[in-house]
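Thread: quick sanity check before group meeting

JM: Hey all, I'm pulling together slides for Thursday and realized we never actually wrote out the predicted structure for the chain we discussed last week. Dropping the sequence here so it's in one place. If anyone has concerns about the input, flag it before I start.
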Amino acid sequence: MAQGDQKILEGKALYDALYRFGYGGLQTMLHARPLIDFIRTNTSQEVHSVLDVGCSVGHAVRALWRLGFAASGVDVSSVATEEAEKKAKAIPAVNRKCVGTCFQPAPVQRLPFEDRSFDAIMSSDVLEHISDADVPAAIHELTRVSRLYLVLKIANRIETVKMNRTIAPVRGGSDLTPLLGPKETFGDKIRAQSGGANDLPETLHLAVHHSPRVWIRQFTQHGFDLVHTISVPDWACCAFVLKRGMHRRRPPGEASQLER
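JM (edit): ok, ran it. Output follows.
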C-alpha cells in the first residue's frame, strides 16, 4: 500500500518493523493475563495443550509452561517468534512443554497445524488487527485447530496512530531493539530507518466491531458457542470463551454484558 512517495506498511512487514523497535513489551501480559487465569481456574480438567495465536515474544506461552500446560505460539512476525525462541532458551528444556515447534511465524488465516491439534486456543488483541476480508479465514482456522475451547480477547475500538505517539521501545520489549535516538516514537524510527520511504498505517485495528456479538455469531456458525464472558475494564473490551458443541442458553447477565 502506498501513500504519495511513502509505502504504508501492512501485514508481516508492518509487525516485523514494529518488533524490531521493541513492540510487544510487558504490557502484552496485561492483556493476556485474564485469559490465562480463566484457562487455569476453569478448564484444568479438560485442557492440557494451548496454542497462543499472536504470541508476540512469548510472554503468555512461558506463563502457561510455568502453570504446567503444554503450549506453543504463532505470530505473523518472524522477528517476534525469533525473539520468543531466544527467550525460551533461557528456560530448562524439561520445562519447555511445546506441541511440536514452540514458536513459529504464521498468520491466523493459515495455521500450520492439523485439525484439533490443541485443547484450547487463546488469542489476545489479535483478531482486530486483520482485515475484514481475512476474518472468515481466520475464524475457520481457529475453529479447525481447537479441539474444545477458544479463549479470546478482541478490541472493539479503533487504535488511531498510537504507534506515532508511543515512545520506542515499549518497556520490557524486544532485546533486538536498536536505539536511534532519545524519545523517538515507533513511527519516527520506522521512517528514519527507511529514509522516509516507509510509514505506519493510520490504525493497527482493521476489523473493529462495537459489539462482540458480531464475532460470536460467526464462531457459532462453526460449531462454537459462547459459554463465558471474562471481566475486563471497559477500555479493554471484550473477552469471552467459546466451546465446541455446547448449546447452553446464555444467562441474562452475560447477554447484557455482551450488548454493552
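AS: nice. Helices lie at 11-20, 27-42, 59-66, 78-88, 135-145, 186-193, 213-220, 252-258. The mean pLDDT is 86.
JM: adding both to the slides.
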